[in-house]
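Recap from last week: sequence in, structure out.
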Amino acid sequence: MENIFSNSMKRNDYLSDEMLKYAKNSEVSIAVAFFTNENFLMDLINNGCSIRLLVRLGFPTDGISLRRIFEYKHKIQIKYYTSKSFHPKLYIFENDIAFLGSSNLTNAGIKSNQELNVSIDSEDILFEELKDVFEDYWEEAHVLTMEIIKEYIDIVRELNTKNTEVEKAIFTKFGNHSYPNIIRIDKNKKSKSREFEQGLLKRYQSFVQKFITLKEIYESTCLRKASQLPLRIEIDQFLNWLREEKAYGDNYKRPSINTEEIREFTIEKIKEFYNSDYEYLDTTTVNYITIMKNLGSTEDIDSINEDQLSECLLSIHAFLGQVRHNKGGRIKFVNDFINSNGMDRIKESFKYLLFCEDSYTKKITNCIYNSDYKLIKFGQSCVQELFGWANKEEVPICNERTYKSMQYLGFGKL
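Predicted structure tokens:
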């Protein structure tokens, strides 16, 4: 899969064509400054997608296009800003992929202009950050109604092409609504965290139920490649191996199959895994021992020093994945993390996540949204992975890699 899209005839890398590949019964979130292309949104809707569209009211956003697409309000929600400072170009397709770059949602922007956009896979640590940014944008935006659309159309018509006058009239009518760039948004808003927790619970329940089936199949083979690891961790490594060796790229997109077919196909892949030279399994064993030695109890967590904590952090794949996006290498990144959060705060957050009696979805949610437990540079992927490594409830590691590998085995989209 190409990662750069410039709408070039020579490269044949049109952004619209690439995005439509993911437009199959997906939840799509779009944040753009300019909107004039309702036809693209109709293509998404006709492919079973539901849409959240975030736009700026101002030239050249087209009120007629907004009015047409608004008629499909059972499939699309629209919010808006009026400030010229709102200028993103972001397209997120559920839990699959995001596109970020220079293209507004205009016919020229996604098809013919010389633009530059990149795709970001859901396994990239940046993906969850982009989702967070969109949610912040969405939460602060105003809801677009048909009444506002009609008033916007009237303003543009009355002032014709006098762009400056249009901007002034919009501010007068609707206010200068901008994203609060300087004011820090409260991440602990109950409605947002509650909605996230419900979605997380639904996804975890579906995954864990299917993981239990996978575990039963795995046990039936009597093949253990790393008996020193808990079975759920070995199976997680099997799923990682699948993603790297079999389900890479878009190969994971296989249709659901029946239980017996899943069993036969999975046993075949388990045997291949057992006979493979998967070197990362040794590293996984070392990482697991490191994490459990230092985070295996509340007493262990209370007693760890910075060096021991650093070892644990660098054993978390999602945490380590952030290093390449930050200058200075591993040591600097870990030191910055510890200095930004403080040892005491990190310990309290980890103790809550791993040992509190709250439900695991509530603990994960609070470690992402609740200011009492949320850590800087320790987002959703890190929280879920650490919980999967060290929890006492035998809940498996749950992330985009495992979802895709399970889909490859025939369990369906998670």
